[in-house]
TrEMBL record:
Keywords: Nucleotide-binding. GO terms for cellular component: molybdopterin adenylyltransferase complex. This is Molybdopterin synthase sulfur carrier subunit. NCBIfam families: moaD. One of its GO terms (biological process) is Mo-molybdopterin cofactor biosynthetic process. InterPro entries: Beta-grasp_dom_sf, MOCS2A, Mopterin_synth/thiamin_S_b, ThiS/MoaD-like. It comes from Brunnivagina elsteri CCALA 953.
């Protein structure tokens, strides 16, 4: 029996947006997927993003969450690497 899938929107910022050249992505994952899997997926496609692995914060629906938070269908995910500026 196969698990059903969920569809999420990933908002891209800073290094993630530079890598993908778009402000957001629509992705599908199996039900029960933790938010950190989104980051792993993006890094598989763009290995240069791996340097942000341990310093990226995760947000779901405008709330900061832990990496093991389970995604729900329709969630809006943000991956926020450190940003510099002033």
């Amino acid at each position: 029996m196969s698990k059903s899938t969920i569809t999420i929107t990933v908002k891209l910022f800073a290094a993630y947006q530079e890598a993908y050249k778009v402000p957001e992505l629509k992705l599908e994952f199996p039900e029960g997927t933790p938010v950190q899997t989104v980051q792993e997926h993006l890094q598989t496609q763009h290995p240069e993003l791996a340097k942000w692995r341990n310093v990226t914060r995760f947000g779901i629906n405008l709330l900061f969450v832990e990496p093991d938070t389970i995604l729900q269908n329709g969630d809006e995910v943000v991956l926020i690497p450190p940003v510099s500026g002033g």
